[in-house]
Design brief:
By secondary structure, the protein is an alpha/beta fold. The protein has six helices and seven strands; from the N terminus they run βαβαβαβαβαββα. The protein binds 5-O-phosphono-beta-D-ribofuranosylamine.
Amino acid sequence: MRNKANIAVLVSGGGTNLQALLDAEDSGILSHGEIRLVISSRPDAYALERAKGHHIPTLCLAKKDFPSREALETEMIAALEQAHIDLIVLAGYMSILTERFTRRYDHRILNIHPSLIPSFCGAGFYGLKVHEAALAKGVKVTGATVHFVNEIPDGGEIVMQKAVEVREGDTPEVLQKRVMQEAEWIILPATVEKVAKEILEKEQKA
Ligand code: GRF
């Protein structure tokens, strides 16, 4: 029996969440999964350097190099199959996946969102905009959510959430950093471990 599920991480930017997953693998917090492939939507994403530092194969699939979203995803699917990927993790991936893709990987794609869904989520809520909206509303508690991905933006089944306090005088940048440190970098590795373990257990029973 296999003792690790194969994980692909999709990124677009700095990759601090990817780093949290790599650290979790090193420390043993993530023990039922192994990151085997990192795919970026941008050639200049620093996340790619983090992956290379860990000797993980990388691939860049940029929208401008393909005639359509479907064509890009066809190539992505080929790479995922070749690496025998069981679980896909969106860690700051800034592109929308088609329904064809999300259906193919039903309950096999996780996303991290920097708010407590259903607040401040869906179309248009990404990056600093999420924290700007939370501050504009005056919420006293925000947080992060890890959920399965389906065809509705930020609409799939919630797996894990963690609350974070909003403090007097917070700017969007300060709040973003606190949400990452106190929630995202903790619940993303924890969820990936949980789901990877469940995938292996299901496989064993089958
Ligand atoms: C994080 O805030 C994540 O919640 C959101 O995009 C950001 C990615 O940051 N989906 P990083 O690239 O992991 O540093």
